[in-house]
Write a structure and sequence with these properties.
alpha+beta; 5 strands; 16% strand; 180 residues; 52% helix; three-stranded antiparallel beta sheet
């Protein structure tokens, strides 16, 4: 078997940079195509982080803390990504084999998602399609899920590498930049 010598993205940082670009598009126009790409990229980052020797042990630990079985955000990304990749549940059974894992049961897409307004600029982000995820009878906004998921990876790649004294400032700057 011959391995690819050159890939489209060769590091975890390159995958994160792609996630950041897709997230930016979602904030401009929230839609199923970019959400699918965001979820696929976020799902793949776990493995990229584990295998990238350029990342610190702390970055790996923070990633592992996010990608646990009981994390609703991680499970939604992971289950939707696998469902899309395999054109449905792998074994015909949508339930994960591990106990206490939240299970995604449906995704609903409707036109007319209004997004929300960021004060004081009054910029609207996330307007486009209204996409919700159903998880064991509860409905979750896919926009909120994307924002929370991006924040986890932003912390891993842009805050964790900083010295402790600079992290609070970087988190505040991030919130202002992304309007979060």
């Amino acid at each position: 078997m011959k391995l690819f010598k050159h890939m489209l993205h060769t590091t975890a940082q390159a995958r994160y940079d792609k996630l950041k670009r897709v997230f930016g598009r979602l904030m401009q126009n929230f839609n199923r195509d970019d959400l699918d790409e965001f979820i696929q990229t976020a799902n793949s980052l776990r493995e990229w982080i584990q295998r990238d020797p350029a990342l610190t042990r702390e970055q790996r630990k923070v990633a592992e803390a996010f990608t646990v079985d009981k994390s609703l955000d991680w499970q939604v990304c992971h289950q939707i990504a696998n469902h899309q990749k395999h054109a449905g549940p792998k074994s015909g059974n949508p339930k994960p084999t591990k106990p206490n894992v939240p299970v995604v049961t449906a995704v609903h897409v409707k036109p007319g998602g209004k997004g929300f307004v960021l004060p004081p600029s009054l910029q609207v982000i996330g307007a486009g399609e209204d996409i919700t995820v159903e998880c064991e009878g509860n409905t979750e906004s896919a926009l909120a899920l994307a924002i929370r998921t991006f924040r986890h990876f932003h912390y891993i790649f842009e805050v964790t590498p900083l010295p402790l004294a600079e992290r609070a400032k970087a988190t505040t700057m991030r919130a202002e930049f992304y309007g979060l």
